[in-house]
Amino acid sequence: MSDMQRQRQRICVLGSTGSIGVNTLDVLARHPDRYEVFALSAMSRVNELLAQCLLWKPRFAVLPDTGLAAQLRKSLREQGSRTEVLDGAASLSEIAAHPDVDMVMAAIVGAAGLAPCLAAARAGKRLLLANKEAIVVGGALFMRAVEQGGATLLPIDSEHSAIFQCLPEDRSSWSRRIDHIVLTASGGPFRQRDPATLSDVTPDQACAHPNWVMGRKISVDSATMMNKALEVIEARWLFGLVPEQIKVLIHPQSIIHSMVVCRDMSVLAQMGTPDMRVPIAYGLSFPERIDAGASRLDLLQLADLSFEEADSERFPGLHLSWAALRGPEGATAVLNAANEVAVEAFLAQRLRFDQIHRVNAQSLEELQPEAGECASVAGLLGLDARARRHALALITGLTA
What we know:
Elements: H1 3-6, E1 9-14, H2 19-29, E2 35-41, H3 46-56, E3 60-63, H4 66-78, E4 84-87, H5 89-96, E5 103-106, H6 114-122, E6 126-129, H7 132-149, E7 152-155, H8 158-165, H9 174-177, E8 178-185, H10 203-206, H11 216-224, H12 226-238, E9 246-250, E10 256-262, E11 267-271, H13 277-285, H14 320-326, H15 331-347, H16 355-366, H17 377-399
Parallel strand pairs: 1-2, 1-5, 2-3, 3-4, 5-6, 6-7, 8-9
Antiparallel strand pairs: 8-10, 10-11
Helix pairs in contact: 3-4, 5-6, 6-7, 7-12, 7-15, 11-15, 12-14, 15-16, 15-17, 16-17
């Protein structure tokens, strides 16, 4: 292996204190000869970010909030750290596009990840996309940035990584091979619960996922199946599919992570233990494969693998994805914004669990994107803000 091949890849981890960020650092720790942490960012977890900075010694750390950044800066100085602390949302884009960065793990939750993801794409980075909202909101604008910047876009969601692993490296052949894809879903904590009782669900119950350890927002999305709705939208852009080519099945065991049904009706599936370190490691090392730290899948110990239809009564939010994809450009951004506001209100106990869907569905029906709004980041963020205000007004009306 040449000296150039041995050079460590420099990585920017956006959202390093969340579950994806923590798992990414776990994988990186297993391969110190291959990877170097260049920058870390968090939204508000100062103490966790401080500990990560002291351990990994990145060149930069970013906190969007000026006050929190000052707190981190002071603490690092007291520890003799040389890490430079940046603040402001623009700093996220700055480190994502930094010329010394080889790879960006985009693990920021929500639409806040759009601008830094676009910056990384335009700068031609290897972009490991765990922030599905960036592509849900950005859509065509985001994919154009990837193409024009010459970026390498690798999906980190377990389902999209599974689809990607089942396809050849030559993307130009995908349309000739794929009949449709099947995204699998665990069904979350309420798969067998009577839909009539969902109004009584508490935030802690919604966040108790049976198979995956995730942050609270994404756990609620999994419970409502809005997470899968966003994944349907993401798959449309990642794999160049029409809405009718994307199917969803409930697979409670979370062993088969997704499937590609080929034109000859062969079915290709990727299997593995439910551990996010597997798609993370694949994204980091693609096209190679490295140790992820995951447990071996013991086929002899598996219970039966089962599949169910996604119940539209129990999971009505899932079906909003196809409605949004068939709607005007920007409809997916409206759906995402409304959902972020509704989930935040639910976690704050200002909205019932069963009302999340009502806010999302009404926002999608009532708010129309304006002409040209989706042609720029500023326009998309303006649409996002309008949708959030609309959703907040709906929540006020429901809870008055």
